[in-house]
Design brief:
It is built from 4 helices and 6 strands, in the order ββααββαβαβ. Strands 1-6-5-2-4-3 form a 6-stranded mixed beta sheet, with helices on both faces. β3 and β4 (about 75-85) form a beta hairpin. It starts with a strand and ends with a strand. The chain is globular and about 40 Å long. It is of the alpha/beta class. α3 (about 95-115) runs parallel beside α4 (about 130-140). Helix content is about 30%, strand content about 25%.
């Protein structure tokens, strides 16, 4: 079985050749502006614009869904809705692990179709409040078990 590749760097500047999917977590209330998305928008504005349009139109804008936005001929950004709201409530962080697993399964399918590797920051463990160990286990189950290369970036 493959393993997760941990790299120093920025996920908006993927360190690989070929087709690439950059995955990140979005919330289900249509707020964009903190964390990884700041760097993402600084590099490519299309993922933000498409996310806001998606929210406004409401088509499948819910937990567990993914929006794929092509930003170059080789790079696609995956806006994954796997966070409920933006703040913890009653001690429950915004991350939704079940939605994340569903999103990652959809991204894995797309990666197979595109023969792409998947790149991401440590999704869900920042403002979303998730446990990296739990998230890492979900990545192993949803992606690595399908023999897709995964790169996790730490700044």
């Amino acid at each position: 079985m493959n393993k997760i590749h941990y790299l120093k760097g920025d996920a908006v500047y993927p360190q690989a050749k070929g087709n690439i999917i950059i995955a990140h977590i979005c919330n289900d209330i249509g707020v964009w502006g903190r964390g990884f998305v700041v760097a993402l928008s600084a590099r490519w504005i299309a993922p933000e614009i498409e996310y806001l349009i998606w929210r406004k139109e409401g088509n499948d804008f819910s937990l567990g869904n993914v929006q794929f936005v092509k930003v170059t001929t080789a790079v696609t950004v995956a806006n994954m809705i796997a966070q409920h709201d933006i703040i913890s409530k009653n001690g429950v962080p915004p991350i939704r692990y079940d939605a994340l697993e569903i999103c990652l399964e959809k991204i894995t399918q797309r990666a197979v179709e595109l023969e792409a590797s998947i790149h991401m920051p440590r999704i869900g463990s920042g403002f979303a409040g998730g446990s990296w160990k739990v998230i890492e286990d979900i990545i192993l189950k949803a992606i690595i078990s399908k023999y897709i290369e995964v790169y996790i970036y730490d700044l």
